[in-house]
Amino acid sequence: MSTVTKYVIEARIEVDGPVDKNDVVGAVFGQTEGIFSSDLDLRELQKTGRIGRIEINVTTQGNKAVGKIIVPTSLDKYTTSLIAAMIESIDRVGPYQARAVIEKIEDTRLEKRKRIIERAKEILAAWEKQKVPENDLILRELEDAIVKTKVSEYGPEKLPAGPDVDSSDELIIVEGRADVINLLRYGYRNTIAVEGVKIPKSIAGLTKRKKRVIAFLDGDRGGDLILQELLQNCKIDAVARAPYGKEVEQLTAREIHEALEHAVPPSEALRAKEMAAGAERKTVPTELKNYVKQVDGTLSAVLLDQNFNEIQRMPVSELVTKFGEHKDAKYVVFDGVVTQRLVDLAASLESDVYLVGARVGDVQNKPPNVHIYTTSELINAS
Predict the structure, then answer these.
(1) Strands 359-360 and 337-338: what pairing?
(2) 110-152 pLDDT tens trace
(3) What are the φ and ψ backbone dihedral angles of 75, each rounded to 5 degrees?
(4) Strand 212-217 to 170-174 pairing
(5) In the chain, what are the domain boundaries?
(6) DSSP conformation class of 6
(7) Which of 7, 179, 251, 377 has the fewest CB atoms within 10 Å distance of its CB?
(8) Residues 203, 325: contact at Cβ < 8 Å?
(9) pLDDT 10s digits, 211-225
């Protein structure tokens, strides 16, 4: 007897009346019984371990109910498809009309293979780091020494700066000396550091002579404070941020390039900062909160523009496909999991995007223009 789950059937059910979980359980077992031989009876399949525990979640919305049916199986794909079709044949729950639709059948072995491959990549990367040849370490130390000699001092405050800080039309303002060194390592020679929250007069004057000035700051509270001071004292054309929780001095060449590519006007940077601060204070715009309440427990998603106007509403299962079709989407509110794939789609848009999902999955990389919240924290906000 096999106990290894091969497939997971996920179905959505809608009922034209207020029913509870037990009513749906009765419909699932009652309306599938006797359609085929006893070998395909759900109760018998559970007894023999060929299907696992059937999970059913139901939410009542006014005079209707919506829910999800999840059936794990260790059957072959042909029999699993037949079981799925049987579940989709359910047309009544109690005295009410009902509709069941299969949303997906997940091959758990495929997902397991993906996880194993991803983990193997992580193990290999860690292994390679441990086996850095001695010659490479020597070359890195030599490179660091050369880079540090290129750091100059600017103004009476003797601020750390790159060699092109005066001659370049573009200026990148960072927080400290280590940030200047890291950007120099990857070819950015037009940088200068503020070396504290108080903005030196030399930098304020320098920004007025540049065609474009980018503030490139750490993804933390300190970066927020320095941004506020820079905007009050200097001409700033764009704002770039390191990923949340990271510092500019820690970034790789690719991360630096992506952060600068996604630099936004100061007005957008301030709106993002206010949104984050609002979440911390547990305050949420009324329009957004209304949409959060609408999708909670419905397995649906809604795309909104920057003025909270509805762009499109859809089942969660269609979100990944349709999200990319709407470049003007600013807020994505949905009853599902915030995944790395959704984050990557949001990151491809030019402006800040807010993802509000039921929960957050395994998100390893969050670009600075993507902001993530859960529906529960916004629903409970004042």
Answers:
(1) parallel
(2) 878 888 887 887 777 666 555 555 555 555 665 566 565 678 8
(3) -80, 170
(4) parallel
(5) 7-108, 153-263, 276-379
(6) -
(7) 377
(8) no
(9) 999 999 987 777 888
Full 3-state SS string of 156-182: CCCEEECCCCCCCCEEEEECCHHHHHH
Q: How far apart are CA 250 and CA 182, in angstroms?
A: 8
Residues in Cβ contact with 256 at an 8 Å cutoff, skipping those fewer than 6 apart: 182, 183, 186, 188, 248
Q: Is the pLDDT of residue 73 over 70?
A: yes
What value does the mean pLDDT take over residues 2-23? 86
Largest CA distance in the chain: 90
CATH classification of 153-263, choosing from 3.40.1000.70, 3.40.1360.10, 3.40.190.10, 3.40.50.620? Answer: 3.40.1360.10
Check if the beta carbon of residue 28 is closer than 8 Å to that of residue 69.
yes
Q: Encoding tokens for residue 283?
A: 């305050």
* CATH match for 276-379 among 1.10.600.10, 3.40.140.20, 3.40.50.150, 3.40.50.720: 3.40.140.20
Q: Which residue has the tokens 């920057």?
A: 306
